[in-house]
Amino acid sequence: MASTALHLAPSRLTATHVKRLAWLTLAWNILVVLWGAIVRATGSGAGCGNHWPLCNGEVIPHTPRIDTIIEFTHRMMSGGAVFLTLALLLAIFATSERLQPARKAIVAATVLLFNEAILGALLVKLGYVTGNRSVGRVVLLSIHLSNTLLLLGAYTLTVYFLERPWRFTISRRNLWLSAIGLVSTLIVGVSGSLAALGDTLFPASSLRAAFVQDFASNSPMLLRLRSVHPLSAFLATVFVTWLLKRSWGSPLANFVLGLLAFQIALGFADLLLLAPTWMQVLHLLGADLYWVALLWLSAQQTFPITKELHA
């Protein structure tokens, strides 16, 4: 009886079920990223000590402090992301044909998710949390943040290909232009997160004091890197201008443009308010939504439709 149920289970999955699971997995991982920002902004990265995957040597911490609750919640949410991703991987392979590009996208997401876990564990085990200001933390955190954006990108492409079950060609010219623009946008995201870390570790009493920190000769590398953020943002804006020009008038292009304007406004507000935690989280949410929408719009330009796939 059990074997019969196992055999019939894939046939009960419909394309609609798989799409819903894919959207849920993407949304859940965005929440994990946002909670990770709360962990960083509140200095809760050492809430479980240097233990991983255990928390202070326990499976479930007893009488936890606030920082332990925040860090442990993040770990539990990350565990949920693993289960959702594996479920989506199995569902896509059970219901799609061999040429469906969503298969490659979800495999990439699965690999990147395990990379994410390894990088997160290294940050904890090496003590690159809370008040650590070392160059090693900046380097490892940059890799971690890049992997996070690539992970969200892989989930986005998984949903994109599931929502558009057609056969595609690849526009190589647009592929290269999109790759350059998306890398620039990724640098904006990473540099922005590093800037937020700098705001947390080196809080300024005023906007003027923050600028003095950035350009002082004895400033740590983390503060000097803050200038990379506006420069990379300029390059990414050039790419977005090209992309929006090609897609002008479409609802998605208008949505991307609106998110871009919203992000710029949040960036100025973040600067003027001296980066409180709630503003950092809101700014990051806008950045994640913008990244997902931008990647979707880029995919439309890079993968022109040729014909419908047949089951």
Automatic annotation (TrEMBL):
Membrane topology, record value: Multi-pass membrane protein
Transmembrane segment boundaries: 21-38, 76-94, 106-126, 138-162, 174-197, 227-244, 256-275, 281-299
Pfam families xrefs: COX15-CtaA
Record's subcellular location: Membrane
Assigned keywords, A-Z: Cell membrane, Disulfide bond, Heme biosynthesis, Iron, Membrane, Metal-binding, Oxidoreductase, Transmembrane, Transmembrane helix
Top-level division of the source organism's lineage: Bacteria
GO CC field: membrane
A biological-process GO annotation: heme A biosynthetic process
Pathway(s) of this molecule: Porphyrin-containing compound metabolism
Single GO molecular function: oxidoreductase activity
Chief location bin: membrane
Matches recorded under PANTHER family: HEME A SYNTHASE
Official protein name in the record: Cytochrome oxidase assembly protein
Organism encoding this protein: Terriglobus albidus
